[in-house]
Amino acid sequence: MPLGPFGRTAVAMITPFGADGALDLDGAQRLATHLVDRGGCDGIVVSGTTGESPTTSDAEKEALLRAVVAAVGDRARVTAGVGSNDTRHTVELARAAERAGAHGLLVVTPYYNRPPQDAVAEHFRTVADAVGLPVMLYDVPARTGTELAADTLLRLAEHPRITAVKDSAYDLSKAAKVMAATDLAYFSGCDELNLPLLAIGAAGYVSVVANVAGPQVRSVLDAYDAGDTGEAARRHLALAPLVERMMSAGAPGTVTSKALLGALGLPAGPVRAPLLPADGELTDGLRVVYDKVAGGL
Question: Residue 1: what pLDDT?
Fold first, then answer.
């Protein structure tokens, strides 16, 4: 499949901070370069949930985006997370990201205020109308409290700049219905569903685990693309212990990713409150599983 505006093997990149909690732009550039040149990623998503967007300022988001575009924008697609639960603010963020050089936008369903489906659709159309960039809808009802219903997705697919979905809804039936009826490019937003979604027509993934195991995550897609579905399944299952430990260990993927990146000597730094850093026991357990998975693929 062609690369497209979002890449195929995209990573939901963490946002590195210094020891004092300030934005580490040099670290962000070094990490993005590592993820693209050595991590097998052809797409970088900045300022998503994993990038701690709820606790970074608008100015920090723009500075981070500019730094990552400067570092890898010539050889990877850089997508900016711009979603909020305020349509006006989301439009402002989207326009700023376009000026800063983003190749695409990730826009989450408005959270907390729980708008009905017609309002959700209007929110996305308003953002897409305000910019000239392709838009990836982010469907993650466990976090937002509001799903993107299949009928809403079918209507939004008619917009010329709404071209993709980051699917974190854990609903393969809904994904299949929308993929069958539209040209929306689906990207798995849940590492445990990367291969199942590929099998029903997804274009790629936006992976948290790729922060630390990008080549291993990509190897699943590469085997699938090569037509070796048995090898793709083997590699997917071999990754499962790391996915489970990173995403279901009682700490968010941001925390576990930063703990592992730090243990591997890569830029990460602390998390921002209200998140708490991984303790030694969690970090040691992550490293044990990581070493087994990285050595076994």
Answer: 47
